[in-house]
Every structure is written in structure tokens, then in C-alpha cells.
């Protein structure tokens, strides 16, 4: 393989993974989960008495943070655009997943299920991310197993069902765990993106 061909292959690899490895975008989502856990724990009186304004304010700040991080990636790494149908799918997927998780959250809560459907769905999503790019996302397999085990713990009497429901009032620990999952996965994804760019810049 000539150096030119190798360079083209490296560029192809970077562009195909670029949008998937922008892990810092997960930080605002993790912060929002931490905030909701804080509200439900009632440890911060100010957050509790001003709810839902405090929750709405946190959401606005997290959205602003997400947009700022998106600008950071475009400024420092550039932009990779997909074909129109693929680009639409990339924009719609997070929203669809959010709606799906909220729906499962309400179903498990009102049906008083002995396990967490939302945790199982999140576990499947994390496993899908692992299968999509195993060489760069081994950590998603670990987190998929952790979230799956957390979701089925109530079956064995090791955890209260209300503590693993996404919409449950006692789900502080579960929300913190999910926040840690997103935070750590995002930071690892970002580090791999930086490493990939650095390696290919040095060989350019």
C-alpha cells in the first residue's frame, strides 16, 4: 500500500468515526442526570423549593453547554457531513432514544415491574455502540453489563424496584450510575478521537 493510499485510508477512518467519538457532548447529559439525582435526594434545599424552575434552568444550561461543545469540535477538529438521509437520522436518533427511554420509564414505574425496562434498553444501546466499533469502544461492553445488572437486581431482592426506575422517586443512585457511565464513556471517546487525530497528524 502506497503512502498516498494509506493516507486516504486514515482519512476515511477518521471521517467515519468523527461524529461518533465526540464524547464531550455526553458531559451535559451526565450533569443533567446528576442534577435530577440531587433534586430527588432533597440534599440541596434551594434546588427543591424552586423546582420545576431549577430543573428547567439546569436543562437550559446543559443545552447551552452541549452547543458550546459542538462549536468546540467544529473549531478544533472541523466538520464531517453525511449524506442527507444519514444526517437526518443522526439528528433524530438522540431524540427518539430519549422519547423511548421516557416511555419505558413511565411504563415500569406505573406497572410496578420487578425490574427496570429503561436500564435494559440503555444496556442494549451501550452494547450496540460496542458492536458498532469494537476496536475503539471496548468500554461500552463493560458499562452495558453494569447497567444490565443494575436493572435486574430487584429480581433477586438486592435492590428496590423504585430505585432502578428511571422515573422513580428513589432512583438517585441509579441516576448517578448512569451519569458516571455517560461521563466516563464520553471522556474515553474524546481521548480516542484526540489520539486518532494526533497519530494521523504526525504521519501527515
Structure in words:
- By secondary structure, the chain is mostly helical.
- It has eight helices and no strands.
- The protein has helices at residues 3-18, 26-41, 45-49, 53-77, 84-110, 117-132, 138-152, 172-203.
- The two termini are 16 Å apart.
Oligomer: single chain
Largest sheet: none
Low-confidence stretches: none
Share of helical residues: over 70%
What is the radius of gyration?
19 Å
**CA(first)-CA(last) distance:** 16 Å
Basic shape: globular
| Number of E strands | 0
Class by SSE composition: mainly alpha
Question: H/E order of the elements?
Answer: HHHHHHHH
Q: What's the helix count? A: 8
Mean pLDDT: 81
Strand residue content: under 5%
Summarize this, please?
With 204 residues, this protein is mainly alpha-helical. Helices cover 75% and strands 0% of the residues.
Amino acid at each position: 500500500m502506497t503512502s498516498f493510499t494509506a493516507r486516504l485510508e486514515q482519512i476515511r477512518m477518521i471521517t467515519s468515526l468523527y461524529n461518533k467519538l465526540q464524547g464531550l457532548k455526553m458531559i451535559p447529559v451526565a450533569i443533567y442526570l446528576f442534577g435530577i439525582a440531587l433534586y430527588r435526594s432533597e440534599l440541596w434545599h434551594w434546588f427543591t423549593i424552586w423546582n420545576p424552575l431549577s430543573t428547567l434552568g439546569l436543562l437550559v444550561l446543559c443545552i447551552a453547554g452541549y452547543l458550546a461543545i459542538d462549536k468546540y469540535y467544529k473549531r478544533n477538529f472541523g466538520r464531517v457531513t453525511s449524506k442527507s438521509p444519514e444526517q437526518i437520522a443522526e439528528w433524530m436518533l438522540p431524540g427518539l432514544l430519549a422519547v423511548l427511554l421516557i416511555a419505558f420509564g413511565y411504563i415500569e414505574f406505573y406497572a410496578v415491574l420487578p425490574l427496570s425496562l429503561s436500564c435494559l434498553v440503555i444496556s442494549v444501546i451501550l452494547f450496540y455502540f460496542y458492536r458498532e466499533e469494537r476496536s475503539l469502544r471496548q468500554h461500552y461492553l463493560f458499562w452495558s453489563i453494569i447497567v444490565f445488572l443494575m436493572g435486574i437486581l430487584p429480581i433477586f431482592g438486592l435492590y428496590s424496584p423504585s430505585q432502578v426506575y428511571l422515573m422513580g422517586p428513589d432512583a438517585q443512585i441509579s441516576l448517578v450510575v448512569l451519569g458516571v457511565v455517560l461521563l466516563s464513556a464520553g471522556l474515553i471517546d474524546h481521548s480516542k478521537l484526540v489520539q486518532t487525530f494526533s497519530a494521523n497528524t504526525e504521519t501527515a
